[in-house]
UniProtKB/TrEMBL annotation:
Disordered: annotated segments: 1-27
Superkingdom as given in the UniProt entry: Eukaryota
One GO location term (cellular component): nucleus
GO BP terms, alphabetized: regulation of RNA splicing
Chain ranges of the Protein kinase domain: 63-419
GO molecular function terms listed in the Swiss-Prot or TrEMBL record: ATP binding; protein serine/threonine kinase activity
Classification via InterPro entries: CLK_kinases (IPR051175), Kinase-like_dom_sf (IPR011009), Prot_kinase_dom (IPR000719), Protein_kinase_ATP_BS (IPR017441)
Record keywords, A-Z: ATP-binding, Kinase, Nucleotide-binding, Serine/threonine-protein kinase, Transferase
Biased composition (Polar residues): 1-10
Protein name according to UniProt: Kinase-like domain-containing protein
Positions annotated to bind ATP: K94
Pfam families: Pkinase (PF00069)
Organism the protein comes from: Cladorrhinum samala
């Protein structure tokens, strides 16, 4: 759900914790009192932006907000109780920003899908007017942690769970591509495990499981709590799923967030929203978004789900650094990318590469082996059996072919030997 490109207006002011005087105030003259990490940009609460939401608000005359599930560049997502359901029932309410709520809203493309066990489809939708404009609202089943977060890391059948998660996301992408839709933002944070066990519980029981919502006051220029209608009086930190009982999570994840998706028969977006670690070389060098760039992102995503770490995990989010990292693993870029298109290659490249211009399976096998990344014990990492590594590396190599036309399709990937192991 990240914007493309995300707005950076007022980001310095928003992080100026404890300072009532703005050096460079955002246009709405608002800031957060506490740490803004994990929250949407406060500057986005203005005309055309997010709808201001407070806990216990009833939206669409039906959904009462009780917690925050997430946020991105295009929407905020809330846990809400359905007040018109026959029994106590909960749902995820996704509120699209006003300037993205037109008839061309990418989320509407999912209307082509009638049923899919691998994709999270809306069960209801409505329009809502607010101080910042008119907003599309989609109601989804409640989803929890992302597939690569290691929610099941203590389970004896972890290999099977992760393998099944990889199959689920591959099947989801195959279904989307069959309809002529490019997802455009495929990554593990958009592959979430469903949550069960809330329906039938009272609101205070659900909050006892999730933890009480934590608020970050929104302050105006004078340092007072905001009362202007265009922004809320506070932002809410999302649920921390790592603190929730893992038995509530279903093992088969769902693909979400079609905010960057588009019909491949029409023009691709001018600013493709795929984050740097999942961007294909043609996306970096030519802004060429499409089915092939989705397949590259699928390869990176499968690696991350299976291992718990990124294939291209760099300190600097710079295009040259990612191209350099690709070459270290996959060999030199093909022409004319290597000699002509990559203008800063002579500056960025400081080492020799594998002689092959195609993928180097041995290098991908090496990336699946334990290494220095295990120094970070705060994140989930998974060892892979030795007999599985070359087979998995072969699948990854077929999805990470430099030439877009040489990448196997998601449907073909499902027939790969690794999915039959």
């Amino acid at each position: 759900m990240e914007a493309s490109p995300p707005s950076q207006r007022g980001s310095d002011a928003a992080s100026d914790i404890g300072n009532d005087v703005f050096a460079d105030p955002p246009s709405n003259n608002l800031r957060l009192e506490l740490d803004p990490s994990g929250l949407e940009e406060i500057i986005e609460y203005e005309s055309g932006g997010f709808h201001p939401v407070h806990l216990q608000d009833v939206l669409g005359d039906r959904y009462r907000v009780i917690h925050k599930l997430g946020n991105g560049g295009f929407a905020t997502v809330w846990l809400a109780r359905d007040l018109k359901a026959n029994a106590t029932k909960y749902a995820a309410l996704k509120i699209i920003r006003a300037d993205a709520s037109g008839d061309d809203c990418p989320e509407l493309l999912l209307g082509r899908l009638q049923d899919s066990e691998h994709i999270c489809l809306a069960v209801d939708q409505f329009k809502m007017d607010g101080p910042n404009g008119s907003h599309l609202c989609f109601v989804y089943p409640v989803l929890g942690p992302r597939a690569s977060d290691g929610a099941f890391h203590a389970y004896d059948d972890l290999d099977e769970i992760l393998h099944h998660a990889c199959r689920s996301v591959t099947a989801a992408i195959a279904s989307v591509h069959a309809l002529g839709i490019c997802h455009g933002d495929l990554r593990p944070s958009n592959i979430l495990h469903p949550v069960t066990g809330f329906d039938g519980l009272a609101e205070d029981q659900v909050l006892a499981i999730l933890g009480e919502p934590s608020r970050n006051p929104v302050l105006n220029r004078a340092g007072e709590v905001n009362t202007a209608p265009t922004a809320p009086g506070y932002l809410v930190y999302p649920v921390k799923w790592h603190t929730v009982d893992k038995s509530l999570f279903l093992k088969t994840p769902r693909l979400i967030d079609f905010g960057e998706s588009f019909d491949v028969s029409s023009d691709a977006p001018e600013y493709p929203g795929t984050p740097p670690p999942y961007r294909s070389p043609e996306l970096i060098l030519e802004d060429a978004a499409g089915i092939p760039s989705d397949l590259w992102a699928l390869g990176c995503t499968l690696f991350e789900i299976r291992t718990g770490r990124k294939l291209f995990d760099l300190f600097d989010d710079e295009d040259d650094e990612y191209l350099d990292a690709m070459c270290q693993i996959l060999g030199k870029l093909p022409e004319p990318w290597w000699s002509t298109t990559w203008e800063r290659r002579s500056v960025a490249v400081h080492r020799n590469y594998h002689p092959s211009v195609a993928h180097n399976a041995r290098s991908l096998v090496d990336m699946l082996a334990p290494g220095l990344w295990y120094m970070n014990r705060k994140t989930f990492h998974k060892d892979i059996p030795s007999e599985e590594k070359p087979v998995f590396a072969d699948l990854l190599g077929k999805l990470l072919e430099y030439r877009p036309e040489k990448r196997i399709s998601a449907k073909e990937a499902l027939e790969h030997e690794w999915f039959k192991m």
